[in-house]
Design goal:
alpha+beta, Replication Protein E1, Chain: A, five-stranded antiparallel beta sheet
């Protein structure tokens, strides 16, 4: 039996048009919950297939396959307005890198559809995005135990440098 065809899903991320666009050091990688129709038609995996560490390892592996070595990552699991979970991975590399090759690799090789946030350009912006309540995620929906990992930290362990969720001042 032949392997299923690669899903034809749109890949989204920051603009990287032209040879003079070197990419970014930091990317926000989002794995949204596919609709039941999309999941049935394309057989893409869902966030429920992963835990913090397995999603992180998958993306680190894909980035390495695309010649990007990561220095640090932080993974967040959060419910969206519809109540379904999304996985998000904040990544940081010492060299600027583009996102599209990684998205194509994940979709083709692992059947994982991800998008890349256009509003996160620095590590601090990404941590704030993952740890601060907003219109689409309430404080009670923030990940209580986000996983942060560094390349040279030896055996991956939880690292507690991420600030606690910030509550809004009244």
């Amino acid at each position: 039996m032949a392997a299923p065809a690669v899903p034809n899903l749109e890949l989204a991320g920051p603009s990287q048009v032209g040879r003079g666009v070197p990419g970014q050091y930091v990317h926000w990688t989002a794995m949204p919950q596919p609709t039941p129709e999309t999941s049935a038609q394309t057989q893409v995996r869902t966030p429920a297939d992963f835990a913090h560490d397995s999603f992180r390892e998958l993306v680190v592996e894909a980035r390495a396959a695309c010649d990007t070595m990561l220095e640090e990552t932080a993974c967040f699991l959060e419910p969206r307005a519809n109540g379904l979970p999304h996985l998000n991975l904040l990544v940081w590399a010492l060299a600027q890198h583009r996102w599209k090759k990684v998205a194509e690799h994940l979709l083709k090789e692992r059947r994982v559809h991800v998008s890349f946030g256009e509003n996160v350009r620095t590590w601090a912006e990404g941590v704030a995005h993952g740890r601060v309540p907003s219109e689409h995620k309430r404080e009670e929906g923030l990940d209580k135990d986000p996983g942060q990992r560094g390349k040279n930290w030896g055996t991956p362990q939880r690292h507690r440098q991420l600030p606690a969720p910030v509550t809004r001042m009244l």
